[in-house]
Sequence to fold (643 residues):
Amino acid sequence: MRGIEERNNIRAGCLALLVAGMFLSLSASAKDLKVTVLDADGMPVPDVAVYLQADKSVALPPPAAFAVMDQVDTRFDPHFLVVQSGTEVRFPNSDVVAHHVYSFSNPNDFILPLYKGNAHPPVTFGESGVVILGCNIHDQMLGYILVVDSHAFAKTDKTGVAVLPVDDVPVTSVKIWSPRINPKGEVLSQVISDGVSDNFVFRLSGKLRPAHDSGSGALKWSDY
Amino acid sequence: MVRLLVGLLALAASGALMPAAAQASRNQFSIGADLGYVQTAGYTSWTEGFVGKLRFDDGSDGLVLSRSFIEYLGRISDTLDANVSAGIYADDLGSPVDLTEAYLEWRPVPRSRNKYRIKLGAFYPRISLENTGAGWTSPYTLSSSTINTWVAEELRIFGAEFSVTRRPMALGGNHQFGLQVATFRGNDPTGSLLAWKGWSAHDRQSRFGDELPLPPLPQIQPGMLFELQDPYVAPFREVDGRMGFYVNGEWQSGSRMLVRAMHYDNRADPTIIEDGQYGWYTEFNHVGAQFSLPGNFALVTQWMNGSTVMGPFVDGAHSVDVEFDSKFFMLTKTREDNRLSLRYDNFEVTQNDQTFEDDNQEDGHVWTITYQRAFSDRLSFAAEWLSIKTHHYGWVYYGIDPTRTETQLQLSLRLRFSN
Fold:
């Protein structure tokens, strides 16, 4: 019941803002939920995962057919991927060199050798959490997959904004995570409660870790 | 030489017909050949048994097959690799084809933040930041820095290296710290060339069986102090049965920065000579760093400082007792398929002994500028100009000017094939 109440509250809030929204914002539809992530200085933070936490009692719609975490120029591409729990993730390896991708992040740990001629089965991440990816051949490779029990997720853009569609699935909170905020996996959360608007702002208090930068490409690392 | 060239071209042509590999297979072969035009000005090369700092001299000006290699990487299992590299040279320092490296590497999949690696066999110590390509070639220049030229000449580990690296997530995951400890045999005559020939700048890698000529030093002639010394150095021999070691520490930040520092000690007995090869007690410290800079620039720098001694300790010094020091700074920039690299080396050998007619003191510097253009993964062109100025007092023994600037222009077509 609580979920329905909250949903109704969100809808009410959405309706209340609809008129104002028509004047103020033409970009987001009335049923969208806008999340802005700012650092301690008020500057936008891009590439932060934002997702809506559904009520535990409801069954989520099935995840997307698959997601892709590629290996390009001995880097994970994207560096950071968000998927719904139960999603198959493919690791195609677009490099000429072999990779040996692994993670020891419980409970989503896996080992995946990526050679020519090998069948590379996709990896299904069944449990929510942060999966830290490494390559056992190329030490400098580092990637992240955030597995969420949510069907509504996105990453913030350059302006620190992510827009999530609000549908019929009851949601209880909006959560954010980025390896720059906490590489180990703790997420920040705001409860979606009575009277709340469709506009959430996360103002980060701590210092952000430097963005993952793979260098200029002028250096040639050993690739065997 | 001609037969070798024809054979390699045939090999290269067959490689060119191979379909491009979409991904690395479990058995990976890399073949490389550098065909070049060389124009030099300087003394007769050390490879001909004289004092020239370069690999080439008047006798080799013109078209040369400067280098070729075959590298095999076999994945015995997902965590066990076999690496074998052979170098092919058309000179008289060894057989035409011989091995430069041969080792096994075990990389168990990490179960925690610690990564463990074990290398077993014959391999380069963890020094060069330049020679990161297949066959230990450099993506930056044709000729190596003086430090890595010496590494290629006289250093190889016949033993085991144990490595542990850790990526503390508390630092955001970008940083990685590593510690490598190695123990090895062989490498007892290592240091002979640095003391008796001095630093050089070239791209020749010694193979296991190579015999590297010494200059016609007065003291290795019949009837002189070191008459038992062969006129060449076989740097990888075991002379005294004592194991050497090195310890190396590294700090890496993503693909942006790497800093490494090593202490190497071959623990050789400097009083032993066996089969024409002295033991040279050689130890050094090495620091290397590379940084990725904005605008597709990168800076690579290394510094090495050490000493080598040979002979009994009498009156405060060994018969040969020298300190050696070299450093280089290289700035490199890429723009699409073009790369431009500029390097400055400074080198020095300081003499501490008083042995008559064996003055090994030298100092000098090198400027190297290299332009490369890649036409494909298989074919690239490089043009390099190198100038090395040396003051080496001992050269007066041969009636030549002890101060000399040697120059080399090299144009090279670099062919690379892999399955």
Q: What stands out?
A: Helices of chain B lie at 2-17, 146-154, 192-196. Residues 2-17+28-418 of chain B form a domain with the Porin fold (CATH 2.40.160.10).
